[in-house]
What we know:
The complex is a heterodimer of chains A (142) and B (202). With 142 residues, chain A is an all-beta fold. Chain A is built from no helices and 13 strands. Chain A has strands spanning 2-6, 18-22, 24-28, 34-44, 47-58, 65-71, 74-78, 81-85, 87-91, 96-107, 110-120, 125-129, 133-135. In chain B, strands 7-8-11-12-10-9 form a six-stranded antiparallel β-barrel. With 202 residues, chain B is of the alpha+beta class. Chain B is elongated. Helices cover 17% and strands 47% of the residues of chain B. Chain B folds into two domains: 1-35; 60-194, lipopolysaccharide transport protein A fold. Chain B has helices spanning 9-35, 50-57, and strands at residues 61-62, 65-69, 75-79, 82-86, 89-100, 106-117, 122-132, 138-141, 144-147, 153-155, 159-163, 166-178, 181-194. Chains A and B meet through strand 2 and strand 3 of A and strand 12 and strand 13 of B. Strand 3 of chain A pairs antiparallel with strand 13 (181-194) of chain B, so a sheet runs across the interface. Chain B: This is LPS export ABC transporter periplasmic protein LptC. Chain B: GO terms for molecular function: lipopolysaccharide transmembrane transporter activity. Chain B: One of its GO terms (cellular component) is plasma membrane.
Amino acid sequence: QGASVSFKGLKQDTTLPVEVTADSLAVDxxxxxxxxxxxxxxxxxxxxxxxxxxxxxxxxxxxxxxxLHAKGGVTFANAGDAAEAAEAIYTIDSGSLVMSGxxxxxxxxxxxxxxxxxxxLKAGSGVMEGRVxxxxxxxxxx
Amino acid sequence: xxxxxGKGFHSKAVALAKVILPLLALxxxxxxxxxxxxxxPEDAIPFADVDVEDRVREPRMTAPTWSGVTRDxxxxxxxxxxxxxxxxxxxAEGLQAVLATPDGKITTFTAAEAxxxxxxxxxxxxxxxxxETADGMQITTEGLTALLDQTEVTAAGSITxxxxxxxxxxxxxxxxxxxxxxxxxxxxxxxxIYQPTGPKPD
Lengths: 142, 202
């Protein structure tokens, strides 16, 4: 069971340049993995993701980043929607962002929490799974 | 009897030759001295006096090479345009250093100036340094310090790096040998701009 979530107007062009800022970056010469650590911030177009540490995973061919593994408390914000989770994996080319570990998604007034949130940035849709709870703000609120 | 026939053609020829040939020899011999250019003993050994004074004033080596192996087994080879000895080491211009780490990765450093100081086992590169790491990352920075006895290279100033990761700028850089192998650590503020080459959205 899972609640499907629509990210209105969230079409994300995943070919926009990705800008990563952090306190430090360690590149392991043997395996070539690069790990950004220290309030890392990833920005791509309107999408902003912050995390304690982000490990870059390369695609098979050199010079291409396949995935960004973020951990240490991840927040994700894009055009009005914001989500928080313990960890997240962002696959740049396919535009899939999977957040896991007590995820809290806020869209305008409504808030949904669960264990795992899979967002497809290209299609602008997402599925929240695992102990999903949601809070509605009735329209006529005080 | 043969003589009686008087002076035959043969005898005339011989007599004539006896006069002409020595004269010819004399003439040839004289060209050796009178006509030949005067020999200046000075330019027997041509040498450039341009940098002789320079060399006398300060002794220099041109195109020296220095190589050593660090404690963790990576070979460091330095070649330079020229080097001047100074206390505890040497000062070089146009230096190129190649660090071949035991895992087979090659990192090359090129720098305008370098101070090799063997007393405290340090090589200080300055005046604009380029570093090319094994995975094709080109790093340019102002100055760099490399330890000679172990693999540790530190760039104090800001650096910019161009590589498979994209364009990276950082406040400092350190190449050290951790337990899992060599790590290149960029620090005090890192910014990377990566241009994904994925398919355009439909």
